[in-house]
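Anyone else keep sequences and structure tokens together like this?

Example one:
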Amino acid sequence: MNDTKSMIKNALILFAITLIAGVLLGLVYQVTKDPIAYQEKLAQDKANQSVFSTASTFEDVGVDDSFIEQVLADYPGVSIESVKKALDSAGNVLGYVIQVKSKGYGDYIQYTVGITNDDVINGISIIKIAETPGLGMNAEKVIAPQLVDKAAAIFQVVKSGQLFDESTEIEAISGATITSKAVTSGVNAAVTYFDAALKGGQ
């Protein structure tokens, strides 16, 4: 009998602790939800402006699902998160900002790719990355600059010292080939999507 009472008592205590913990977690989520969303929006806005510094505004055009399957078939681990028009002060379309997420060595890497109407990669700006410090974390310093002002093409990652064609080859970060390929694969997916769904102001 005492054992039964003890079990019931312990069960009630555990239930109370679980209930209180759940309520507290719910409160924390409610309190932090808006600030987190605001910070994420700031990071995205900064990334958009980084790849199209001459743009005055960015207009969401959405992702056309009819192209996604064919675009991403060759790029496993990559997803296209959003697409925006980059507009000048007169409302003219300068190009597009394609937000991409690709699987890196440690986690997913999230970044924007700016492509002009003239088929030129205007810039790459990383929003979120959690790769190996000193190696993959150098993606924005090492990989991104190699892609700026290049014709929008399909790029290939090559090892350090093996770069022969700068127009289509990207030199990998030393010791971080997986990260280098992840970012480049995402850029290739963005270029492929641009060609299929956006080129010519479609």
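And example two:
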Amino acid sequence: MEKKLMSEKESLAIISQMITNAKNNVQENAGSYTLVWGYATIITSILIYLGWIYIGAQWIMYGWGIIPIIGTIGTLILNKREKKKLVKTFLDSVINYIWIVFGVLGGMVSITAFIYNIPVLFFISQLMSAGIVLTGFVSKFKPYVYCGTIGVLLSFLCLYFRGAESVLIFAGIFFVTMIIPGHIANRVSNNLLKGKNIVESKL
């Protein structure tokens, strides 16, 4: 018995569904999480630097706590927004686990710095840069790999400069490792979505 051939309408419906599924796996503004944490770190670093220079009080260092507050709030807002329109994939879960591990390690290092005299800016920039590199390898997004690697190398400057200038270096590292690739990721993902929307509209 001959197989029943699909009608043109059925074929177009299948193709349309495939495109929709693919589009759901491309996150709009994919670099937003990176940008939230990157800008939170840079803004806080600048405030810490200014406080260090013009006030010089020890309590200024508690200002680093602004970073997880802003970052967490921004992440929750993005999660709530993306939850409505994205189907989470295994890749998303892997990246989430990577940042949970590095986030916990970063928090532990930060707490330790209030007890022992350790080069905390060096360790944090190393951890976060390494996290970006791993994210780039897992997602096969080269800007993360390249910028994260540069961040790892630049972090050694925090061992040489230990004064107020180290805070500005720290901010610069996060600009390279998170802000630059974050904006690139947003541009790439949004262009992909626009392209798929155009193809889908033609169907």
